[in-house]
Amino acid sequence: MAAAKKELQQQLETQVSALSKIQKDITKNHQVRRQYTIQHGENEMVQKELELLDDEANVFKLIGPVLVKQDLVEAKANVSKRIEYITAELKRLDVTLKNLEESQTSKREEVMKLQQRIQAGNPGKGRP
Predict the structure, then answer these.
(1) Could you tell me how many helices (H) and strands (E) the chain has, helices first?
(2) Model confidence pLDDT, tens digit, residues 49-76
(3) Domain 2-118 has CATH 1.10.287.370
(4) The whole model's pTM is what?
(5) Average pLDDT, whole number, for the chain?
(6) Rounded to an integer, what distance in angstroms lies between the CA atom of residue 78 and that of residue 80?
(7) Which of 38, 43, 55, 101 sits most deeply, having the most CB atoms within 10 A of its CB?
């Protein structure tokens, strides 16, 4: 009986560890998503500013410490592609977050079941 209890304790520790990892992954996902959301907003502002320019306007791109002249059409295309990429990443992160939250819920249920089994194996002795 003591061996069974020890095995349940080990299972519980494993599940708690897995739950903790999932929670860290959720936090990391939120941080990355926040960064992409900021970048998305910044790129939308740049896109709006580029739309206001005349076709002959000079556009410069900062590459390291140097400003390099860039074609307006090319600049608009680059910003549009960047927005497309960021939007796709945000969608991917949303799907990943949903899956992580589902995993978190199932792990919590497993942990609670294991805790109940451990407590049921010790009636009258208090907490394990």
Answers:
(1) 2, 2
(2) 999 999 889 999 999 999 999 999 999 9
(3) yes
(4) 0.78
(5) 91
(6) 5
(7) 43
If you write DSSP's letter for every residue of 31-79 in order, what string do you get? HHHHHHHHHHHHHHHHHHHHHHS-TT--EEEEETTEEEEE-HHHHHHHH
Q: Which amino acid is at 72?
A: L
For position 127, what pLDDT does the model report? 45
**What does the block give as tokens for 87?**
């939007």
Bridge partners for 59 per DSSP: 70
- The count of other CB atoms within 10 Å of the CB of residue 55 is 6
Q: Is the pLDDT of residue 97 over 90?
A: yes
Residue 35 token pair = 């960064």
Please give the distance of CA 84 from its chain centroid, rounded to a whole number. 18
Distance, in Å, from the CA atom of 119 to the CA atom of 128, rounded to the nearest integer, reads: 7
